[in-house]
Amino acid sequence: MAAFRALGLAPWLAEQARQVGLSRPTAVQAACIPAVLQGRDCLGCAKTGSGKTAAFVLPVLQVLSEDPYGIFCLVLTPTRELAYQIAEQFRVLGKPLGLKDCVVVGGLDMVAQALELSRKPHVVIATPGRLADHLRSSNTFSLKKIKFLVMDEADRLLEQGSADFTADLEVILDAVPARRQTLLFAFPCCILIILIFFPSRDCQVLNMMLRKYSFPSVALHSMMKQRQRFAALAKFKSSIFKILIATDVAARGLDIPTVQVVINYNTPGLPKIYIHRVGRTARAGRNGIAITLVTQYDIHLVHAIEEEIKLKLQEFSVKEQSVLDIFTQVNVTRRECEIVSV
User: Fold this and answer.
1) Is 304 helix (H, G, I), strand (E, B) or coil?
2) What is the DSSP string of 142-158?
3) Domain match, 171 and 198 both
4) Together in a domain, 123 and 150
5) Contact, 176 vs 148, CB < 8 A?
6) Same domain, 200 and 301
7) Residues 179 and 215 in one domain
8) Are residues 147 and 203 both part of a single domain?
9) Where does a domain end: 127, 160, 186?
10) Sheet with 101-104: strands ordered across
11) Range from 104-113, 156-165, 257-266, 304-313 carrying the lowest mean pLDDT
């Protein structure tokens, strides 16, 4: 019990954890519970059986107990079986609160589910397809005030294969507030998140090009309205879109701990801009990669960066034939997108 208390959990919740057999925090619980209680977004990578469900159930229940209302938390999961398992953990650990939950999955009566949703349960655990169906067909409930969005087995939710949830997830993301805590839990090393810095005038064009080639991308630039920026950033932070094309101005102050790759489309004119950009990855002790595209006219800029950071940048040559093989098709696509964006 003391070990859970040390993570910041209230005595009643630590005692509840003890009663259900949680004697000491697992690694993922020790890493995630304090971060969630501090109001931060979180990405937890852990194998099955590592206690990752309790890693989000416990802190969500604590925050809920401080200001209870419904609908407070939305949990998305790829399968109905997992949805019921998560619901059971919420019920057992949240028993002292009189917790109300609602499981929204396929194969069950939609009218009965809609009635449950209209009663504003504290926690909704759902598969994307069925929840999106409700959002498309009903206005008897709202997700606009949720505090937490949790995506369990996020790697399966976000993969684009036979079970592609992208369209349903977009419907759901449009229905939840941009300002919320987002918690992602996945199998280790399954989610790659990329941030590309691009000039403002071409930002939207590149986004359209990537989408044409089926890359899950979203743009963030200064010509967007604030509401559009919040929505785009929320979709990126939730990993609905794994690639963000952003301008320096729009990306200023971004804190997305899970960014693994930063790509500079152009070599920054000032070393401090380079430092700001590449600082979006390898945060909080994580590993990260920064790639900068350099032409023969940018060598002096690279030397200025190296002098500022006191480090020799590693050079990777480009195979010219590989570029030429796709050059024509990419140029055609670019012209098409430029016409549409005008």
Assistant:
1) helix
2) --TT-SEEEEETHHHHH
3) no
4) yes
5) no
6) yes
7) no
8) no
9) 186
10) 42-45, 181-186, 148-152, 73-76, 123-126, 101-104
11) 156-165
20 and 162 housed in the same domain: yes
Assess whether pLDDT exceeds 60 at residue 162: no
> What's the CA angle centered on 46, arms 42 and 47, to 5 degrees?
155
Domain at 322, CATH number: 3.40.50.300
- Return the axis-axis angle of helices 226-237 and 166-175, rounded to nearest 10°: 130
33-42 pLDDT per residue, tens: 999 999 998 8
Rg (CA), the chain: 22
Backbone dihedral region of 49: left (phi > 0), alpha (psi from -120 to 50 degrees) or beta?
left
Residues 157 and 21 in one domain: yes
Closest residue by Cα to residue 183 from 155, 154, 220, 208: 154
Q: What pLDDT score was predicted for residue 279?
A: 83
Listed residues 149, 167, 186: the one ending a domain: 186
In a shared domain, residues 182 and 275: no
The answer to whether 216 and 296 have CB atoms below 8 angstroms apart is: no
Q: Which domain holds residue 329?
A: 194-341
DSSP string, 128-142: HHHHHHHHHH--S--
Is the model's pLDDT at 263 over the cut of 90?
yes
For residue 116, the model assigns a pLDDT of 95
CA distance 143 to 169: 13
Structure tokens at 231: 């929505």
Tally of structural domains, the chain: 2
